[in-house]
Amino acid sequence: MSPESVAPGSVRSAAALNEQIRALWLRAGGSLSAQERKEYELLVVRWAAAIRGEIIEAA
């Protein structure tokens, strides 16, 4: 999955995003290329937003 393939504003759970992050690291063998680093950063930002949303929703 490339960052471009993720629709802006799409909503995914923190758990689903976490799975994507883990899968990315597994595919990369623990060393990210420049493109994979961009994808990772995008996923982490979206994961953090999902976590915040889940916390607010739970409150």
Task: Specify the overall morphology.
Answer: elongated
Mean residue pLDDT? 84
Number of H/I helices: 2
Radius of gyration: 12 Å
Order of helices and strands: HH
Structural features, described:
There is one protein chain. The chain is 68% helix and 0% strand. It is mainly α. The chain is elongated.
In short:
The protein has 59 residues and is an all-alpha fold. It has helices at 14-28, 34-58. The model is unreliable at 1-9 (pLDDT under 50).
What's the layout of helices and strands?
Layout: H1 14-28, H2 34-58
Helix pairs in contact: 1-2
List descriptors.
single chain; 59 residues; mainly alpha; 68% helix; 0% strand; elongated
